Amino acid sequence: MSKNIPEKVSNRLTLYHSIMVEYIEAGIETISSPQIAQRLGIDDSQVRKDFKLLNNAGKCRVGYMVKELKDSIEKTLGFSKTKDAFIVGSGHLGLALAKYDSFNSYGLNILALFDNDPQKIDIQVNNKQIFHISKLPNLVQRLGVEIAILTVPRQAAQQVADFLIESNIKYIWNFTPAVLKVPPTVKVWNENLMGSFLQFACKDIE
Amino acid sequence: MSKNIPEKVSNRLTLYHSIMVEYIEAGIETISSPQIAQRLGIDDSQVRKDFKLLNNAGKCRVGYMVKELKDSIEKTLGFSKTKDAFIVGSGHLGLALAKYDSFNSYGLNILALFDNDPQKIDIQVNNKQIFHISKLPNLVQRLGVEIAILTVPRQAAQQVADFLIESNIKYIWNFTPAVLKVPPTVKVWNENLMGSFLQFACKDIE
DNA sequence: ATTAAATCGTGATTTTTTTCTTGATTTAGT
DNA sequence: ACTAAATCAAGAAAAAAATCACGATTTAAT
Fold first, then answer.
1. Is the CB of B42 under 7 A from strand D?
2. CA B177 → CA A19, A120, B85, B183, distances in Å?
3. Residues B89/B160, Cβ–Cβ less than 8 Å
4. CA–CA separation, A99 and A88 (whole Å)
5. DSSP for A101-119?
6. Protein residue closest to C27, using CA and C1'
C-alpha cells in the first residue's frame, strides 16, 4: 500500500474490483486481461501492467484468479483500513451520502453529520446523528477524525472549510464547486462531478 | 467546442471556471496564471497552456480578463448547450441529484425521474415528476432524451441499463459501482466516487 | 528615461502513460 | 505427441501530459 499509485490506476483498480465482485457472484474463478480490457474499452496490456503493480501473477492461457485479484486490489487500495469521516452540510447531497452504504465496503466510515440549521439538529440519518456545526471541533478531537466531506452550499464553502481547518481536519473531500483556499498541511480532493461529465457529454453531443 | 479536449483539461477548466465565478463576485477583473496555479497546486505554464486552447490571449504583467475567460470556458465546455436527461433510480442519490440545481448552470437539464417502486410514482421532486420505469421508452422517444443518469442499486444496474439501451438511450452516466456491458453505440461514463477518493485518502493516511 | 519585477507565450525537455511487439507458456483439440 | 490458439510477461516504442526555460512585453518604481 501507499506505493503512490497514480490516480488513473487507482480509478481503474476500482473498476476491476467491481468486475471481480460480479464474477465472484457469478461463480467464475478466473478472468483474463483481454476479457477485462474489452469490458472497459482499454488495451489488455494496460490491464496486465496494472496487475503487475499488485504483484499478482497470472497464468498463461488461463488468466488471473478472481478471488486473489479482488483481495490484492482491496489491500492495495486500503479497503480494510477504516477511515472515519464527518459529513459537513446536511442538505440533499450530504444526506444521500450518509445513506450511501457502499462507502463502508471501501473502508470509509461516516460517524456523524453536521449542519447549522437548528431544524436539522439531532435528526438520525442511517443511524448517524446530525450535530450543530459548533459541536464539530470537540468531536474531531475526541474521535480523532481527520476527514471531512464538505457538502455545504458554494457560498458557505470557504468559510466552513476555514472552520474545519481550525478544528484540525486534515483532509477535505470537497463536493462544492468552490475551489478552497487551504494551507499546505491540509489536503483537498475536489469531487468535480460536472468536469468529467461535460467532457463525456460534449464530445459528441452537439 | 468539441476540439476533443482531454478529460484532464476539461476537469481543470471547470476548476478555473469556479475561480472565475469567485473573482467576479469579488469584483476582480483580471487574474494571472501564477495566481490560479498556486490556488490549484499546479504549474503556471500548465494554466497558460490550457488557456491557449480557449484562444484567449492574456496580457503580460497583467494577466487574463476574468469575464472573458469565464465566457470562453463556458463556450468550450458547452454550458449553454442544453442537455436533457432522465434520472433512473429515485433512491437517495437520485433524489439528491434531482435537487442539485447546479446541474442547470452547466446546461444539464433533468426532465424527470424514474423508479419501479409504486410508492414513489407521481411524487414531485424539485418540480420534476417520478414516473414508473415502464413509461420511460415512450418519454425517451417523445422528448428525444439521450442521456440517463443511473442511480439504481448495483444489483439492478445491468438489467436497467439493458432496458435503457433498448429504449434508445445513448449516454449513461453511471453512478452505480457496476461496470456495465453495453454495445459500442452507447457511451458510459462511470462516476467512480470511491476510485479517486481512495487514492486521495490512502496516499498518506496509514 | 531607466531599471526591476511580473507575466505571457512558446519551444524544448522530461516524465508519465499507453500501446505495440515479441517470445514463452499453457491448454485444448487433433 | 503435435499443433494451434490464447494468454501472460516484459521490454521497446509511441503518445500524451507536465514541467522547465527563456525571450518578449508590460507595468510600476526610481
1. yes
2. 9, 30, 20, 19
3. yes
4. 14
5. THHHHTTEEEEEEEES-GG
6. A61
Residue B59 DSSP class:
B
Counting every residue, how long is chain A? 206
Residue B84: all three cell numbers together: 436533457
Q: In this structure, are residues B91 and B156 in contact, taking their beta carbons and an 8 Å threshold? A: no
pLDDT for the residue numbered A205 = 56
In this structure, which amino acid lies at residue A150?
L
Q: All 3 cell numbers of residue A125?
A: 440519518
Pairwise CB contact (< 8 Å): B177 & A102? yes
Contacts with B59 (C-beta within 8 Å, 6 or more apart), sequence order: none
In angstroms, what CA-CA distances link A200 with A145, B7, B38, B87?
Answer: 35, 8, 28, 17
Q: SS3 for B24?
A: helix
Report the distance separating Cα B39 and Cα B15, nearest Å. 10
Q: Cell for B146?
A: 439521450
Nearest to B179 among A15, A191, A195 (CB): A15
**Residue B60 CB-density burial (10 A; 0-12 exposed, 13-18 middle, 19+ buried):** exposed
Tens digit of each residue's pLDDT (9 = 90 or more) over A60-83: 999 999 999 999 999 999 998 999
Give DSSP secondary structure letters for B67-127. HHHHHHHHHHHTTTS-EEEEEE--SHHHHHHHT-THHHHTTEEEEEEEES-GGGTT-EETT
Residue B113's beta-bridge partner residues?
B87, B130
Window A:14-73, CB contacts with B under 8 Å: 14-15, 18-19, 21-22, 39-40
What cell was used for A179?
A: 475551489
Q: What are phi and psi of B127, to 5 degrees?
A: 65, 15
How much is the pTM?
0.94
Tell me: the pLDDT tens digits for B78-137? 999 999 999 999 999 999 999 988 899 999 999 999 999 999 999 999 999 999 999 999
The DSSP 8-state label assigned to residue B36 in this structure reads: H
